[in-house]
Amino acid sequence: MSTATDLNKPTDEFFAKRGYICANTETFDRFSKHKKDLLGFIDRLAFSPTQNGEWGPIVALQITSLGNRGARLKKIRESPWSKIWCACGLRILLVLWDTRGKELTNVLIEEVTFSPASLPPLE
Fold this sequence. Notes:
This protein is α+β, with helices and mostly antiparallel strands. It has three helices and seven strands, in the order H-E-E-E-E-E-H-H-E-E.
């Protein structure tokens, strides 16, 4: 398994066990034949209806394999929207799946943060 589509279901299940509901935010551009992420970096949004979620009530997810970590982290860091997202007090999680075996059992969750000085002021 190595495609983003393959990783959505296990990600949804992982977050459901932690009280979250995941919603797809990717769209498919039929002309370029590429997926487009919400704000250029969000594959899915995870919502905790009880407001008691481990990572807050609303979390942006970028889902990928461990091997693509660097490219996805760069994508998030280069998006101007990611800093605005964080300046609003929301969180971004990089969901990294180990796709080397037949089963997707190993997942690493990495929070993407920015230094406070790099965040835009919200006035």
